[in-house]
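Checked the freezer inventory, then went back to the computational side. Two predictions to log before the end of the day. The first one is the construct we discussed on Monday; recording sequence and tokens without edits.
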Amino acid sequence: MPFNFASMPMGCGTWAWGNRLLWGYDSQMDEQLQAVFNRCVSAGVTLFDTGDSYGTGKLKGRSEQLLGRFAQDYSGPNHDQICIATKLAAYPWRLTRGSMVSACQASAERIGRPVDLAQMHWSTANYAPWQEGPLLDGLADLYEQGQVQGIGLSNFGPKRLKLAHERLAERGIPIATLQVQYSLLSTYPIAELELRPLCEQLGIRLIAYSPLCLGLLTGKYSDRSDLPGGLRGLLFRWLLPGIQPLLDCLQEVAQFRNKTPAQVALNWCICKGTMPIPGAKTLQQAEQNLGALGWQLSEGELLELDRATAHSDREMIQNIFQTR
């Protein structure tokens, strides 16, 4: 039975599961990652988003491998609702529809079960527009052949989404989901004014990735003395001085609601009609994410958060592959 993506309020992102460069992954974390997986599924958060490019260096594909292992070992509530959604990278050497089919089959082998939702990780329109058509055709082939239950896109803007929709509609194939970077710090005008209404019109579920801005909206990083190392730390040093009005507003709403800033930020995404897919490396982080469910910000609170965002001097850097 196909998944009803419209009924899923939140998913779980697994970019960090296997990524040493940004997230400091170590195989000793696997036991707690299994606990995160189990807790999410038992609570009804059953969509897990991954990618065939996830995992640094020799760990490439580790996220898919872990998800397959965790799904196989899990036997609790909602087991039959587990949805593994992987993103297939538009690598320069993937040029044909067959290469997309082969990529999905390789992901299924790593996972140890069929991929439920196959997504094109990014549009090639910014640098090789001619490459995009065959890869979309490959996604369609996967759906027609029954190898996946649904297909989706990632980092497509409204113009490219319309073209992709038209191409796939000619074969009677629906686009189930679209992922874009979406949060209180990255609601670029096109996403807010064009992309959300377009997705509603076309019946496409909009997925918000990086809804907590790599952890910046959790409220954990309030000054420059407690920043993470590496690239995240550099980015946070640049962003923090210009976003204090938003962080203050998040904290005020969180205190009033008896919630955390992260839960408010995630609930804001849900109220905007998107499905956020926050990551979690620990059971504590998973519990915090789950605390964003079961309640709703008021219209006044949403307005205050939107105003605070507008008064921020800086916003999250957009993905370079995001198209118009």
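The second is the one RB wanted added to the comparison set:
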Amino acid sequence: MKTEECPKFGPLQGVRVVNLTMAIAGPFACGLLADLGADVIGIESPLGRDTSRPTNEALQGWGTQMERRNTRSLCMNVKEGAGRTWFFELLKDADILMDGFRGGQMAKWGMPDEVLWEINPRLTIVHISGFGQTGDPSYVERASFDGIGQAFGCFMEMNGFPDRLPVLAFPQVSDYYAGFMADLGALAGYINAQKTGQGESVDVAQYESMLRCEGFYAVNYLNTGGLPVREGSHSTSSAGYGTYICKDGVPIYVLILGPGVVKKAIPAFGLEYGSDLFPVGTPVVAFGSEAGDVLEAAMEKFFSEHDAEEAEKIMLECGVPCSRIYNFAIAEKDPHYIARESFTEWKNSFNDETIRGVNVVPKLAKNPGQIWRGMPLVGADNEDILEELGATPDQIAAMYDEKLLKKEETPFG
């Protein structure tokens, strides 16, 4: 598919993003930009397939079908020969380049930022790695996956129950956090390049993405020495803040926090607001205090006597923040999900079938995003992209002969 054949929509139309990433963090970041109209060209290597792509009927690569929708695929070896030449040609008109390699890998290929800026001074280069591009050399070159980012970034230690081993949080939190940080840096660099004509180098370390989103806990430790305690399914500091089991066995999450909520919640559980235990203006009921024990006992009794849907309705009518703990089967039938079209479907790019998935997020009122294409097959757009850059049919054929290009005929390879 050529550029002129791609629909123009969204606030990022006209922004070209070259994606050199695999797995989750980078494709997620680029997928968000593509949903809002950016022209994303995903470059995949003919030497090694993205493990997140579909591999067989049992492993359908659902995540990749989400994150590579709205994009074009060029399967080309960018490290050597004509592939390197045409990669540099592609960068001349690119606005953002994202790579997802270990720290320093692009420089090892003879492609440090300075070389890429000689090709395109306005290019914003986003490096996504586990440990960053600088620091202790023995760390910079380490490989990383989501669980490593969670473990090294002090995040995993906070998840689970205090009497058990720390647990990995799902789904792939450090990958997605890193993806968000990559987009923030990418767009900041792009905006500044429009003003100054100078590109930017964005260094996203997976573990630091985790740290930045642990602000309260990190600052608390650094200033008081207090380490966080794994809370499990209930706050260890606030009563009425956690998961409760209803009469029908369905869990519900409730959060009683703030003077306004406390004022509404206490009477809902048959307790007296304004009493010695729950004075007027109470902002939080301390877990483990006498008042906290009374409130917890009253809440457990209440939920044991009501089905989850009924309990949720009563809580919401009283102004108490709560929600049944949803799974996708519940969500699919929820009227709010349906009204907002949170789930949607789109047509595959390689056959007449459709795939269901999550709609464009965030929703924009004046320049909304859209889903116009499903995940392309590996190398589906090789010829169109290279011809746009000026490659002749003979040059493209030679690159196939030299194994610099590859094209797959099915989603499974």
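For RB: The chain has two domains: 3-214+339-401, 241-245+251-324. The longest helix spans residues 173-196. Let me know if you want it refolded.
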